[in-house]
Amino acid sequence: xxxxxxxxxxxxxxxxxxxxxxxxxxxxxxxxxxxxxxxxxxxxxxxxxxxxxxxxxxxxxxxxxxxxxxxxxxxxxxxxxxxxxxxxxxxxxxxxxxxxxxxxxxxxxxxxxxxxxxxxxxxxxxxxxxxxxxxxxxxxxxxxxxxxxxxxxxxxxxxxxxxxxxxxxxxxxxxxxxxxxxxxxxxxxxxxxxxxxxxxxxxxxxxxxxxxxxxxxxxxxxxxxxxxxxxxxxxxxxxxxxxxxxxxxxxxxxxxxxxxxxxxxxxxxxxxxxxxxxxxxxxxxxxxxxxxxxxxxxxxxxxxxxxxxxxxxxxxxxxxxxxxxxxxxxxxxxxxxxxxxxxxxxxxxxxxxxxxxxxxxxxxxxxxxxxxxxxxxxxxxxxxxxxxxxxxxxxxxxxxxxxxxxxxxxxxxxxxxxxxxxxxxxxxxxxxxxxxxx
Length: 438
Hints:
By secondary structure, this protein is an alpha/beta fold.
């Protein structure tokens, strides 16, 4: 594809994404569908377009600072900066190249743009203002600094980088070491995740969907942190279990495998569309104990009929998603203090409703992929205060009993909560609290 055409496509995709009307991954996918005949994208072009757009989202404040010194439409200037970073990162992965990785991009630039890009490349990051280095909205900076202290800049570095690819091995049908060997035969190097006993980690983005082990359901893409949430629930054979906010079912399938496809596992969600995405994954998994069900709200009659009958309930609550910025960098620009405040009201209501499902002795797990204490510790503490019939569990002790390596390092200082951080644990940011029903 000619560099002019590729930069033109990048510019249009950046323009559409920065409207922030829809999630970035949805905008990118729709763009590929809408323009597949116009540009005839191949795999390399798709990767360049996606990474350029995500670079703009990750580095938006720094790019906004550099862009005014250039010429032409702002979206084009942002796309040039994002594309340049994409090319340089790719070259660094291959070792020291014998060519200038920006030569391809320069083929699409006029002299003024080329001179501007060269000037931008000479700007030292250390000379920039703090906001242009952390690339975070100001409302998010202080809460993160308050929690991680000196770890703020290592955290920023991780949040502004792309995540590796984590797989969960379907232990109902396969063993991790066997899948690892099968991936190696396919030319894919995978290493066991350090904490989850089900996980394998891959660098890069291989075409997994073309592999037999994917089509037969031996693996699913799932971040290690998400796997640990399912592990924490510790669902047993033959139990009655509910994944209260199942979404597309990643944790549902992990729970079903840990139950060895026995018992009954309900997958509730208010979005029928998300549950539809579970169906092909469920078919691949070979699980027969999963029962997806769309509900209208957290007080749905289906929930009332199951009150007091569940052994385990997982509430992976709707949240800001700010722990997933490595994968979803648009969220830091699409969320706000107001949207977080609205989410906390929903989180409390959902957790209280889900808790009614538990029988005496049952386990309740509340989880988010947020970094903010108001969505995490504050919700857990408020629930404990309002529901003395639930006894808080030490997540650290629970994970130790499950033989999770270095479990205490995954938790808050008091051991009460799971607290995963990208810069400490190489996972997305996750929180979890657990209780036993009296």
